[in-house]
Amino acid sequence: MSKNYSPESLSEIADGDQEFMLIVAKTFLEEIPPDLTAMKEAIENNNRELAYQFAHKMKPNLEMFGLNLQKEITSIESWTKTLKNKTSIEDNLSKVISKVGLAIDDLKHDFNI
Q1: 24, 26, 89, 99: which has the highest count of C-beta atoms within 10 A?
Q2: What is the pTM for the complete model shown?
Q3: Is position 58 within any domain?
Q4: In whole angstroms, how far apart are CA 102 and each of 34, 44, 98?
C-alpha cells in the first residue's frame, strides 16, 4: 500500500531506530497540524510575515517525511515577499493542506497514535 509520506526517508533519518521514529512521528503530529492551521489563517488574513514564519518552520519537517511539497511551500514563502493577491497561492496551500492531512492519517495508523 502506498503511503502519503516516505517511511524510507523517516527510517533513514532515524537510522532505523523504531523508538526514535515513533518520537519523530509524534512530534510531527503534535506540531504540524496547528502550524498548518496558523499558516492558513495567516494567509487568509493577509498576514504575510506570520505566513512566512509558519511555512519556513514547517519546511524541514515536510522534507524529512518525504512529502515533496518544497515547491508549494517555497511558493508560499515567495508570495509573502510580494504584493500579489492570496489567490495566487491558493492551489499551493490546498495541496499542502491535502497532502499533509493524508500523511497525518497514515502516520496515526502506522504508529498507532
Answers
A1: 89
A2: 0.93
A3: yes
A4: 15, 22, 6
